Amino acid sequence: MTRLIEIKHITVAYGAKTVLRNISLTLWQNDFLGVIGPNGGGKTTLLKTILGLQKPLEGEIIFYKDNRAVPALKIGYLPQINRLDKYFPISVSEVVASGLMGEQKGWRSYSSEQQQRINETLDLMGMSDKTKRPIGELSGGELQRVLLGRALVSHPNVLILDEPNTYVDKSFESRLFKMLEKINEDMAIILVSHDIGTILPLVKNIACVNETLHYHAGNMLTEEWLEQVYHCPIELVGHGDFPHRVLKRHDLS
Q1: Residue range 8-13: mean pLDDT, rounded
Q2: What residues have CB less than 8 Å from 173, skipping those under 6 apart?
Q3: How far apart are CA 161 and CA 243, in angstroms?
Q4: Where are the alpha helices (DSSP H) in 20-165?
Q5: How far is Cα 209 from Cα 196, in angstroms, rounded to an integer?
Q6: Do the beta carbons of residue 92 and residue 146 sit within 8 Å?
Q7: What's the predicted TM-score (pTM) here?
Q8: CA separation (Å) from 82 to 225, 242, 244, 250?
Q9: For residue 122, which of 82, 150, 98, 155 has the smallest C-alpha distance?
Q10: What 8-state DSSP symbol labels residue 242?
Q11: Burial class for 224, CB neighbours closer than 10 Å (0-12, 13-18, 19+)
Q12: Nearest C-alpha neighbor of 201 from the set 250, 152, 239
């Protein structure tokens, strides 16, 4: 298999608090990695470290292209909480186009090929009829779609999604999951979610982060594995096409 990202024994801390300890992980080409774990377990910190937004105390992260080490990869990122000022005078299409800033030199206008990518991305997000609308007029779900489009428009090697269905309206959620399956044909995806049941049908491999990391090849989780990594009994109960997580009765000590 072809490697894209190799994480080797990283440790990350905020002051005296260690958030990630001796983490190792490999992301493969066209992988769809689900990252799960309890709140505060270090999931978002792991993403920030991959993105270079957080420097590890120990260890290293190596990026690969065609199985050769490279300084960086093109990564699209949809954060869990966006800090975009909804009242900033910018349109839907301009937000999506901002995902191409890394390709621009100076203030040149977008090429016809870039404009085509912008239009295709807007259509994929179901926002082609709102291209000129100011972002301040969008619902939370619509804004989340636009930000996802910004992460996708550059055709990255890796797409990182931190709780991507946050704020997405239910009418778009099922379309989002089908879309991610299609996107995964062209790029690797790392998807963070607190909801195990929602991501199980989507992902190919699973990493549970709770200061340390437990890797599970495939998406067929056992009750014993979940109990080991969450440190409490968990069951998965099927409901329609998506199972839901249920915690068994257990002591809080």
Answers
A1: 97
A2: 165
A3: 21
A4: 43-50, 92-97, 112-124, 140-152
A5: 13
A6: yes
A7: 0.83
A8: 33, 27, 27, 36
A9: 150
A10: S
A11: exposed
A12: 239
**What b/e readout covers 156-166, taking b as 16+ CB neighbours within 10 angstroms?**
bbbbbbbbbbb
Q: CA–CA separation, 188 vs 32, rounded Å? A: 6
Strands (E), the chain: 3-14, 17-28, 32-36, 58-65, 68-70, 75-78, 158-162, 188-192, 205-210, 212-217, 234-237, 244-247
Contacts of residues 248-253 at CB distance under 8 Å and 24 or more positions apart, as own/partner, are none
The total number of residues shown for the chain amounts to 253
Instruction: Give the pLDDT confidence of 192-209 residue by residue, as tens digits.
Output: 987 777 777 789 998 989
Q: In the chain, which ranges are continuous DSSP H helix?
A: 43-50, 92-97, 112-124, 140-152, 170-183, 196-199, 223-230
Q: Which amino acid is at 30?
A: N
Q: What is the pLDDT of residues 58-104, one digit of tens each?
A: 999 999 998 899 999 999 999 876 667 777 889 999 999 999 987 76
Check if the beta carbon of residue 63 is closer than 8 Å to that of residue 70: yes
- In the block, tokens 């890394």 appear at 102
Residues 161, 12: Cα–Cα separation, whole Å: 20
Contact 43, 37 (CB under 8 A): yes
